[in-house]
Specification:
This protein is an all-alpha fold and 217 residues long. The protein has a domain of 151 residues: Tetracycline Repressor, domain 2. Helix 5 runs parallel beside helix 8, helix 6 packs across helix 11 and helix 8 crosses helix 9. The longest helix is centred in the middle third of the chain and has 26 residues.
């Protein structure tokens, strides 16, 4: 075995590296726009080597989506069960933003997937997003009334919260490129984003003074 072959043998990508690469490429080009040979070439391996980890492009895509969305669903399911307390809001948003920053292409991948017309992609995304939506709306619905929202406004509130949390990461590259934001995923910028989200959520979902609720009833 030559030195070059030895280095190649020790540099084979791990499962996490494969998922990271696939997440980035699927986010940029969509699942139908990425061939297995493109993924393999990006990592400097053969397609057959990639198939040793994942038997098909579809299973790889499913693994990327599950790795990205399962932790978010788990966080939202457990969030704010006892109301919108500042410490709970801080913990929830810290976990969400940390996860999205750790997977900087996930928000864009999800946005692209929601626009996909492929039945296979739609079925996969529907399975995860419906669960995420139902869990999220169950949490929001519990606290929305005390915050002064009408029942018919709750779905709109859920969409607004989803947008606030995900849009920052979906548009991070554009913000850095033309909006003069510096590095949106730097520690400092993320700290500002967390603080903004905490204040926004508390103002949107925090309990309103009883006298104000009464005056509007």
């Amino acid at each position: 075995m030559t030195g070059l072959q030895g280095r190649a043998a020790t540099a084979l990508p791990t499962r996490e590296v494969i998922l990271d690469t696939a997440e980035r490429m699927f986010a940029a080009r969509g699942v139908d726009g990425v061939a297995v040979r493109d993924l393999a070439g990006e990592m400097g391996i053969t397609a057959s080597s990639l198939y040793n980890h994942f038997p098909s492009k579809q299973t790889l895509y499913e693994a990327v989506v599950e790795r990205g969305l399962r932790p978010i669903t788990e966080v939202i399911t457990k969030s704010w069960q006892d109301g919108v307390r500042p410490e709970h809001v801080h913990e929830t948003l810290d976990r969400l933003t940390t996860h999205l920053a750790r997977h900087p292409h996930l928000a864009r991948l999800l946005q692209r997937a929601l626009l996909e017309e492929s039945p296979t992609v739609q079925a996969l995304i529907e399975r995860w997003v419906l669960s995420l939506y139902r869990d999220g709306m169950a949490v929001v619905g519990k606290v929305a009334r005390d915050a002064g929202w009408d029942a018919e406004e709750v779905p709109h509130l859920g969409v607004a919260l989803f947008g606030m949390i995900f849009a920052y990461f979906t548009n991070a590259a554009a913000l850095e490129r033309w909006a003069g934001w510096g590095e949106p995923l730097s520690d400092r910028a993320l700290a500002v984003q967390r603080r903004f989200l905490e204040r926004s959520v508390i103002r949107l979902l925090g309990p309103r003074p009883r006298s104000l609720n009464t005056s509007q009833s």
